[in-house]
Amino acid sequence: MEKHLPTSCDLCPRACGANRAAGERGACGADDELVVARAALHFWEEPPISGERGSGTVFFAHCPLKCRYCQNDVIAAGEAGRPVSVERLAEICLELQEQGALNVNFVTPTHYAPQARAAVSIARGRGLAIPTVWNTSGYETVAAVRANAGTVDVYLADFKYADSGLAARYSHAPDYPDAALAALDEMVRSTGPAAYDEVDGEPRLVRGTVVRHLMLPDALEDSKRVVRLVHGRYGADVRLSLMNQYTPVLADAAAAGDARARAALRRCPELARRVPDDDYERLLDYADELGVEDYFWQEGGAAEESFIPAFDGEGVL
Ligand code: SF4
Q: Residues with Cβ within 6 A of ligand 1?
């Protein structure tokens, strides 16, 4: 029995009640094994997170949210990755530090939170000195965020939808806006405003909360709502990151005969399209009009598959 895991899981807002400690698989696909798909330097996060040296990303398998348009569908579906122990995850953190990583960046760690915290604790005792980044879909509980106090230095949290209908349509989670907002309140309270140090003459984020919003096709108005909501509620305590890298991976997968992708596109054909540059410009103009300062934005042509790394087990074993 995995001692770190709950017997009735409520690690994410789905609270599906799986007995994870005994090996039961939850709605996210995770059981009692800790599965990692890739642990390597990654250069495509926001500049004060990736810097020139790279962010030490650890991509976990499975996902509580499983969005229809997921760019990392292979790992969200648990089709890549290898089981590791908590002890091994601690070693991985230290190896990433040795490779020069600016931070340890746990990608979609929500369903493995107890093991991730235990690994950081072991690694800290062995000399882990770089910040920890919790790179999350935003679909977290307040209790889970509170439990991360003392472990997580930086939240890199998505805020995907302001509209419950969109959250239901794309992520089967109509409670997403309310849940993500409550969790975000706690993240901001926990980290406080952004703080930086300097590495190689460049700023590195060592504490704070960054909220990412990925624009989706035909959803400009919802994106504006997200910007208005986050900026109005947190002001300069949160740095927004407005992203235009939506990649219609479903279209290619469907063309190649993938049944899951075809079914998703039958229900949501708009997901086969890219986000027009004009829509992205309108969103940035809107953020400017609201007086949002210092937000991250992406250059044109960001929607390339190069953002999606190979989940080949690099750095895992
Ligand atoms: S983390 Fe997974 S097992 Fe736990 S409540 Fe969420 S979906 Fe269920």
A: 9-12, 14-16, 18, 20, 26-28, 30, 64, 111
| Whether the predicted pLDDT of 305 surpasses 50 | no
**What band does 282 get if pLDDT is binned at 50, 70 and 90?**
very high
Say if residue 307's pLDDT is above 80: no
**The predicted structure's pLDDT at residue 171:** 97
Which phi and psi angles does 77 have, rounded to 5°? Answer: -85, 0
β-pairing verdict for 154-158 and 202-214: parallel
Q: 29-76 pLDDT, tens per residue?
A: 999 999 999 999 999 999 999 999 999 999 999 999 999 999 888 888
**CA torsion through residues 169, 172, 174, 178, sign:** negative
- Looking at the CA of residue 6, tell me the nearest atom of ligand 1: 4
Q: Whose CA is nearest to atom 6 of ligand 1?
A: 12
Question: Which residue out of 4, 7, 14, 137 has the highest number of ligand 1 atoms within 8 Å of its CB and is therefore the one to mutate?
Answer: 14
